[in-house]
Each structure stands twice: as structure tokens, then as C-alpha cells.
Write a structure and sequence with these properties.
With 189 residues, this protein is an all-alpha fold. It has one domain: Up-down Bundle (Growth Hormone, Chain: A). It is 86% helix and 0% strand.
Length: 189
């Protein structure tokens, strides 16, 4: 829920408003979205070939941190870039940051689906998959409301701070879950 709260708000609303506020050409918005899509596609392809060698839980713990890093780089590019670079360099840095964000977002849903297939008994998969699909988007309206308010109030810096903190909370929840799992396994032995 937390990752989708950020992702949908960022991709459906925030990037368009930021590009308009930054007064860059529309082509850069297309490049930003293409960079994001290239990142998600590349990471999904990489997971296809190397995913079985990696720890699913570790990837779920690390990817929100990578998403936060991508958003930090994007925030730096849009807030400081125009002062430091010309109008062609800072949007390119923002595109690179969205590529990093996409690299870390793309694999998440693949891992979710893989783990659900492995852990959920076949006789309840329809119910569990339906609930999972519904619940993962329940925070999206709240994210869009917060993004709309912050963008309208010209509090874009605070919006990115909110996005980054939300992703770090997602990581901490995965870390807590892994600690709980290791404690319960140790208790069984």
C-alpha cells in the first residue's frame, strides 16, 4: 500500500505538475516516463534470469530504499539543478533518477506474485489474490489527495519528503517482518 501510495501519486500527478512548474519542454516529461519504464523493464528482465538466486525478502527490504534514493536524486535535480546546470543537464539528471526509481519499483510486483504463488494454498488463492490486489491500492486516494494539496500549496519539497519517509517506513516494516520471522523460526527450534 505504501509503495503504491507513492508510485501512483508520483507518476499520475506529481511529475506532470513539476514539469509544468519547472517550465521545461514536454519532451522531458516523455523522457522522464521513458526512463522510469526502462528501469522497471530492465529490473523485471534481470529478475527473470537471476531472481531465483536472490533472497526475495532481502529484495523487498532493499527496493524501497532504492526507490527513496531515486526520489532524493530527483528532488535534488529539480530543486537545485536549475541553479547549478543549464536547462538540458538537470532534466537529464532527473531522468536518470527516475530510471533508478524504476529499477527499484519494477521487481516488487514480480516478487509479490511469486511469493503469493508459493505461500498461498491453491484452494484459497482466488480470495487471497483478490484481497491482495484490492488492498495494495487502498492508500492511493490518500496519496493523490496529499500530492494534490502539496502541489497546489507549492509545498513540493514537503511532498518529496513525505514520499521518501513513506518508502523508508515500508522498508522498516519489511525489516520488522523479517525479525519476527527469524524469532518465530528460532522459537520453533
Amino acid at each position: 500500500m505504501l509503495i503504491n501510495l507513492v508510485a501512483v501519486s508520483l507518476l499520475s500527478l506529481t511529475l506532470q505538475v513539476v514539469s509544468q512548474q519547472s517550465e521545461i519542454s514536454s519532451i522531458w516529461l516523455g523522457i522522464w516516463f521513458s526512463s522510469f519504464a526502462a528501469g522497471t523493464g530492465l529490473t523485471t528482465l534481470g529478475y527473470t534470469f537471476f531472481g531465483q538466486r536472490l533472497s526475495h525478502l532481502r529484495m523487498l527490504q532493499i527496493t524501497p530504499i532504492g526507490q527513496a534514493v531515486g526520489l532524493i536524486l530527483f528532488a535534488i535535480a529539480i530543486f537545485l539543478g536549475p541553479q547549478w546546470f543549464n536547462n538540458h543537464i538537470w532534466p537529464a539528471i532527473a531522468a536518470l533518477s527516475l530510471f533508478v526509481y524504476g529499477l527499484n519499483l519494477g521487481v516488487g510486483s514480480v516478487i509479490d506474485n511469486t511469493l503469493l504463488q508459493q505461500w498461498v494454498p491453491e484452494n484459497v488463492r482466488g480470495t487471497v489474490f483478490s484481497l491482495f490486489s484490492s488492498l495494495r491500492f487502498t492508500a492511493v486516494p490518500l496519496g493523490l489527495l496529499i500530492a494534490g494539496y502539496c502541489l497546489d500549496a507549492e509545498m513540493t519539497t514537503w511532498l518529496f519528503f513525505f514520499f521518501i519517509i513513506t518508502l523508508l517506513i515500508a522498508t522498516s516494516l519489511w525489516l520488522r517482518a523479517s525479525n519476527y520471522e527469524s524469532v518465530s523460526v528460532a522459537g520453533e527450534n
